[in-house]
């Protein structure tokens, strides 16, 4: 291990995600009424939201669009210097799009696409959420009071993208942005899925194979509870109110996450994360490589029934007519 | 923020802790029977143990001693280069003790003391636990099967030390080892307690004021469940079997940890950690500073009854006769 | 056991309770906003409410009054014949008050007082809650959908009354109404508390000694979750919104109930019940008699800190100035 | 409702069940090691066990047999008089088998079969479990300490039998033993399943249609936790130790039970019950009748994936070769 390469830590976190929705107000109603999120701004065709333990102004932007999907993904750099270093690396790949002035909630950002065409941006300056007096918690480490609506999620967790070529996108995230590979599913040497992080979590981003090799799709966006029972509470609430639950509470083998998957009214898949999975603190972590035949329980379920076909093949925008729409 | 200083990440994790116990076999029985830990080695006056999701050979060494307390605290560096950098910093302080050959479970280590006199060591080379075939889980990210004994803890979490001067020790950990301050309790400008980490967790180490300004005491060692209900399960088990529970399940304000405190038979306080608290991903995190009068619920309890006097004053070794012994 | 006396089963259940509140609208806001209950009627100085799994029109009536306390307690008989038998027994005691025409939610009722002066009534005819189409759950055994407000309680559970003489009231409930004694706390032969039921639950009613031997007070009214984690969720919510939690989540020794106690804004103590305690199915159940010195944990706590003094001495209306008001 | 018929309460509870196992010691190991049960006697080809909150000497008898299945089902009467009344009713049906002297744990019992041929017995005299001093809990309402093995179940809950004709057996239990129908699944007027109780619980016994109209099979036996998280804990334990989980944690629509189904090594299906479902206290309860098309989630699942085919068709003894054996 004497040749151990020192890791790069230039991306700090997943800071926000823009979802596209053909049913903007219904989507906003879902996130606020059932998941207890808060609208912090509206501008043009977009609504900005945050969970009650998100520290920044917003972590979710929902924008009207004809089809569901992901607009862009926002990464915060670890420092201004780190931002510069990453922009230089991105520019070498020819995938850079250039700087934008920023958006509600953050300052200037450098935009780029991944090999599969997902739009991303990286930035340093952020706006913290400023709670009004009546919104403040006496918990100084909690930016706002726990909401009295729905079963409130606590913070943004991660994003999972479908890609025409997981191996290529995985390598891009590692080489260009400094992500570390934590777990991977392979099949005869092909990469079917990758879980990557820049933290002690197993992933801020995951890639999955799009079965028809279509590009640029969203698999899911995930918000976090950290309390297993809350998945049952929210599932009970959603079931009674007619929301579609694709995967009821279930424990992944990969990442050990206690998870659940629902569709928001716009059609995007949302994961709700019920515990802390496991934490990686080993600096020399060797990626856990699963061969497809070893993935537990007929498709990555440790405690739970095998995931439905739709979970494996449906991303947004939905392009194959045979794929179930909610 | 343009002058933001890039963080140092040279310590990766709390790797192991040595506890001292006047009742070695009773202590071992407590950790194995009730907390489901496993003995991985015995040598001389010491027994080595691990939890079922600890990846290394051991995370706990219990050594016979006349009095309870902490033997030493082992940190793993982020890389061989990081180890060298930290040793140089430590040597500048005059608190270095020099290199040792290692111990069961890790290679050569550099030992030093903190200003308060706690013995620590830092190293790079570790031995991973090698499960025998019948011990292996089909979960490739879990090093051994979940035990069928007690309510099994999953991994080592953090250590909390009592010190004659928390301000001085806090600064040492920040300046010399690169820890970041996450939360702090102050009283009229004096530091009463500090929570520090080198990760997304709120702390791998905390310091608390020893009320009589005695040096070198242990407040507690913490193992992690991540599942809130498990604290009730283990409390029920421990209560029925006559173990002393100093603080029943309770939610700290500082760190938001869902916690519980018990005394192992040797007399050391053990924390059991029931959830994930909250996670810090903001690279520019400003430490949360609590003034003593703002600490929730009459002494750092958010949901729960005020902690007993003993929790605030008793460290091991117990030196004040008036302090409750279990 | 051949002389085993066949039990009487003439009271079926606790059907509703009337609370008195000097702050009617604030009390209603508490039950609807934080506990997710629903207002089903308003009439005169009263508001009627139900939890989402209560099958009847209402289980809680809150009436304006100068002081907090209990208005009356409503029992449903097991059959019309059982109602007649019980009225005959009550009339023998001289404590009968006579028939009333009924109230919103139930038909004619026979009113009486207990020896301590608590007003009760017994009846047969009830009105079931009739959900409108949009309120109906697809769960046919759930009368309405799970609410999207607060952490919603599921159903009325039990009532606990303070009395000047628990022994006398206990005997009245057994002899006159057919309750069975399940658990009791005694001190030197004196009855300090009794838990009684007409079901497999440990209690629909409990009596506790009022320390100043004052009459007619309420100790608490209890609603049920059945899910332990929900107590932590609602405690977190209430704490953030400034509600007074007298006893955070705790496990009683007596009844094994996982409990929590809060004050509603009118001043009455409300228990929230987090699990199922234990169930009595043995038809020859011998009451569990606790001597005060055997009551666990310094005052009936199995897992949790000793209950505060206020829990032992404060009933509503509050008559002793030294007792804490919220 | 003036003609409301007063209910009969002559059966008090499900007191014990005899399972048949071709792998006696493996079955005993499963119940003791993973479910924390205790062997209280061994005699001949049988082993007797209890859970730690079972009050009687035993609730489970496992007897060696060539095929898995149920030996007999033991009901305790509400009183000696109730026993006599029930025996008279049974004898009228011609299904009586006569008195036996009793067995380890209970006194003389009257044996009979149901129309489908399941062997049952009813009795009054029971032996309570007498804990030795070191086994006693300080909780006087808990007959023995919580075990330190596995994830310990708390008490026997109910039995579910497969029958060639659920309508006929349901009527027998109601007319002859005094059970009350709580919920039922019908299909075009045919009874497919019935849930019946003599308590506030939804069922002590359920009947399901055996698809090939074979007689005398067991669907499952159920032990109770009452704590939802414990299902995940025991599922994790069982999964790691290679036990077959047929249905991972799931919430039934019928009965609202939070459930899980596993096969013990002898081949019998065991349900583990994670919460309290809902409680029936209404004395005039109208059975909830589900039409097959209204049963939630493609086969009686409220929160969870549809039950596998095996759950609907496999009883023990397994007679159809095409049915999955674990």
UniProtKB/TrEMBL annotation, chains A, B, C, D:
<keyword id="KW-0058">Aromatic hydrocarbons catabolism</keyword>
<protein>
    <recommendedName>
        <fullName>Metapyrocatechase</fullName>
        <ecNumber>1.13.11.2</ecNumber>
    </recommendedName>
</protein>
<feature type="domain" description="VOC">
    <location>
        <begin position="13"/>
        <end position="125"/>
    </location>
</feature>
<keyword id="KW-0479">Metal-binding</keyword>
<keyword id="KW-0560">Oxidoreductase</keyword>
<dbReference type="GO" id="GO:0008198">
    <property type="term" value="F:ferrous iron binding"/>
</dbReference>
<feature type="domain" description="VOC">
    <location>
        <begin position="155"/>
        <end position="275"/>
    </location>
</feature>
<comment type="similarity">
    <text>Belongs to the extradiol ring-cleavage dioxygenase family.</text>
</comment>
<dbReference type="InterPro" id="IPR029068">
    <property type="entry name" value="Glyas_Bleomycin-R_OHBP_Dase"/>
</dbReference>
<dbReference type="InterPro" id="IPR004360">
    <property type="entry name" value="Glyas_Fos-R_dOase_dom"/>
</dbReference>
<dbReference type="InterPro" id="IPR050383">
    <property type="entry name" value="GlyoxalaseI/FosfomycinResist"/>
</dbReference>
<dbReference type="InterPro" id="IPR017624">
    <property type="entry name" value="Catechol_2-3_dOase"/>
</dbReference>
<keyword id="KW-0408">Iron</keyword>
<dbReference type="InterPro" id="IPR000486">
    <property type="entry name" value="Xdiol_ring_cleave_dOase_1/2"/>
</dbReference>
<dbReference type="InterPro" id="IPR037523">
    <property type="entry name" value="VOC_core"/>
</dbReference>
<keyword id="KW-0223">Dioxygenase</keyword>
<dbReference type="Pfam" id="PF00903">
    <property type="entry name" value="Glyoxalase"/>
</dbReference>
<dbReference type="GO" id="GO:0018577">
    <property type="term" value="F:catechol 2,3-dioxygenase activity"/>
</dbReference>
<keyword id="KW-0677">Repeat</keyword>
